[in-house]
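USER:
Before I trust my own judgement here, I would like a peer's view. Write it directly below this note and I will take it from there.

ASSISTANT:
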Amino acid sequence: MTDFKAFLLRGNLIDMAVGIVIGISFAAVITALVADLVTPLIAAIGGQSDFSGLSFTIHQSHLLYGAFINALVSFIVIAAVLFFLVIKPVNALMARRKTEPPVDETTMRCPECLSEIPVAARRCAFCTAEVGQG
């Protein structure tokens, strides 16, 4: 029982649970944004926002391809909204807050054969051209 208690109270398990709960809540917000704002805009431009009624029949089999189109359009719109309203701004913010020093290069390109060689090399290992001291 002690091991089970330690497993439940580990920090990463609780962090993951909190992340999942926040993720589910965030998914609800994004779904509402797409359903209430973006999809009506698409309907205003394209004329139809719900494709679920589209279907066809082959040998008495009723194929509902409209539901698939709805799911596909919803996925693409949600992905676009997430990318442009969440991912791009967060990446821009993280790039501005970056505090790591730039990493020194350990390789360079040979001017003759364009192979990757160590910076300290005096000759290229591939074409034997002199490249000077790094």
Notes: The first helix runs from residue 2 to 8. The longest strand covers residues 56-58. The chain has a mean pLDDT of 81.
